[in-house]
Amino acid sequence: MNANRLLAKPWLPGVELFHADFSGQAFGRHSHDAFAIGAILAGVGGYQCRGQRHALPAGTLSLMNPQEPHTGHAESARLVYRMLYVEESRLPALLGRKRLPDGFRRLNPDDDGQVAAGLARLAAEFERGDALSLESELLAVLELVFVRHGGLRAARSAPRDGGVIAWVRDYLEAHYAEAVSLEQLAGLVQRHPRHLIEAFRRAYGVPPHTYLLQRRVREAKRLLLSWQTPLEVALSLGFYDQAHFAGTFKRFTGVTPGQFRRSALT
């Protein structure tokens, strides 16, 4: 069995997400020109690296530096894991730091599950392709894993910039149905994406991509009450598909679009 998938976006160069699901496949000695940030979801993974043999059960992290030679194999009948690859040359732009991470000292460090949870959210956004949400989740994962395990100092709080952040909010209010990327948004106000996210969260309690989803849900209610179907609403508001719309709507309201529509119009 082999159900491997490699996900990438043309507007995110140097970033790939590999979803591995296989049995019986082995990878010979090789290296990557990128940082590898992964989590084992099922089974037990194994490899030879740094002169030792390593076994990684489900629930553990797998972290590797660029150009680090290693092998790879499944030590169980089936192995499932997610692995984020980020080219080292992309880190300055993504992290917005003058001093970059030292690199991962341990291949499978202890973690409380937050990095793995972040990778799961990132994988979902790769499937949907919403640029603002995807870029936001990517920055969150990179910041978390490199501060915890890569020698990166925690970022200082972003300075308050009420006028600029209010302008960003107004922009999202006016362009809620359009595809908006984090890079585009940050470029409009000449701020690094990470600084923009932090300042926006401090001002409004949520990051820009969450605010945008909330705005879409608010508009969705109005459209549902005007007799538009959930599918029509999903398409008009820029959701990936009807399932994405339904999940987002329920996340913020507690009910599905169909339940809301039926209860309001009966």
Protein model, in words:
By secondary structure, the chain is of the alpha+beta class. It folds into three domains: 5-149, Regulatory protein AraC (Jelly Rolls, Sandwich); 162-207, no CATH class; 211-264, Homeodomain-like (Arc Repressor Mutant, subunit A, Orthogonal Bundle). 44% of the residues lie in helices and 21% in strands. It contains ten helices and nine strands. It has helices at residues 91-95, 114-128, 131-149, 162-174, 182-188, 193-204, 208-225, 230-236, 242-253, 257-264; strands at residues 5-8, 15-22, 26-30, 34-42, 44-49, 52-57, 61-64, 70-74, 79-87. The strands form two sheets. It has a five-stranded antiparallel sheet with strand order 1-2-9-4-7, with helices on one face. Helix 2 (114-128) packs antiparallel against helix 3. The protein is globular and about 65 Å long. The protein starts with a strand and ends with a helix.
Look up the CATH topology of the largest domain.
Answer: Jelly Rolls
Total count of domains:
3
* Biggest pleated-sheet summary: 5 strands, antiparallel
- Overall structural class, as computed from helix and strand content, comes to alpha+beta
Helix content: 40-55%
Layout of secondary structure:
Layout: E1 5-8, E2 15-22, E3 26-30, E4 34-42, E5 44-49, E6 52-57, E7 61-64, E8 70-74, E9 79-87, H1 91-95, H2 114-128, H3 131-149, H4 162-174, H5 182-188, H6 193-204, H7 208-225, H8 230-236, H9 242-253, H10 257-264
Antiparallel strand pairs: 1-2, 2-9, 3-8, 4-7, 4-9, 5-6, 5-8
Helix pairs in contact: 2-3, 4-6, 4-7, 7-10, 8-9
